[in-house]
Amino acid sequence: MAGYSIVSAPEKVRATIGFLTSELKLEDFFTPDYLFDFFAALHQVDPTVAAARKAALFRRFDIQDFAAEKVGRLSSGMKQKASLAISIAHDPEIIIFDEPTNGLDVITARVVTDYLTELKSQGKTIILSSHIFSLVEKLCDRVGIIIDGRMIVDGRLAEVCAGQNLEDRFFELYSASHPELQ
Questions:
Q1: Which domains does the chain have, with CATH numbers?
Q2: pTM for the model
């Protein structure tokens, strides 16, 4: 990944990747402030750089007023925003997000989407897993459609869509792979 071997240089691979899963569970008794600092230190981010990055990300995702609250007392949307900020504490080049807008209100989901667009424009590689077709169409250059655990089609968005919107194309492919539903 990013030119590094997971076998011979796993620490370099981990340093290059930011990962957010819909199943990421922050420990209830820690605060977003503590967790951000912990993960930044884990990735050996200079403390001054980490502090500036935390301030910017917490402000961007409107976390600053909740930074000292225990995670267990946060709403699901606030937990998701804190998880997102923490997962990119080290400013990775490759970002893997599984359902990054889960649990977010429509305004905050837009803030996250706009931020991902910014990261893309900075040349970051973003790998996105989502069932929200409009989000995929907005953010992705390349798309892969997985049905029943198998990659059915992948390629540039326009090629995969074949003149349709992504949702219609998905259901066309889904129907073709499940003839019993027709």
A1: 19-132 (3.40.50.300), 141-182 (no CATH)
A2: 0.82
